[in-house]
Amino acid sequence: MITVKVTYTVKPDFVQKNQENINLFMTDFKKWTLMNSATVPMCVETAKHLFTYLITKMRTFKKKMLQVPSFLSFQKQRDESSLEGLPEIEVMEVVASSYDIFKF
User: Fold this and answer.
1) Hey, what domains does the chain have and what are their CATH numbers?
2) Percent helix, percent strand, percent coil in the chain, to nearest 5
3) Pairing status of strand 88-93 against strand 2-9
4) Organism's domain of life (predicted)?
5) Contact 90, 52 (CB under 8 A)
6) For all residues of the chain together, what is the average pLDDT?
């Protein structure tokens, strides 16, 4: 299982548009994850700071994610909005869990 955490800070005038873009690609991801329960994407926002988490069993999900037009548009607009610093990306491997979130 892989967990990816992306942290970035947008400028105040881009917060609303950023949230709209996130909602668009999350809607698309929900459609895809309903068919494939091996992925759990989520976003947590605190004012201008955004933390995006992706938990997946599929090592190929990143490649699939990069083919979703709404996600590509989100990334392009986010990057062109003059972020306050570069996004931080942490890739973590889950070694143990008290609950199998993918077992339904």
Assistant:
1) 2-93 (3.30.70.100)
2) 40, 30, 30
3) antiparallel
4) Bacteria
5) no
6) 77
Reported as a single tens digit per residue, the pLDDT across 67-77 is: 889 989 988 99
Tell me the residue type at 73. Answer: S
Largest CA distance in the chain: 41
* Nearest in space to 85 (alpha carbons), one of 8, 1, 2: 8
Q: What is the CA radius of gyration of the chain?
A: 14
pLDDT given at position 39: 62
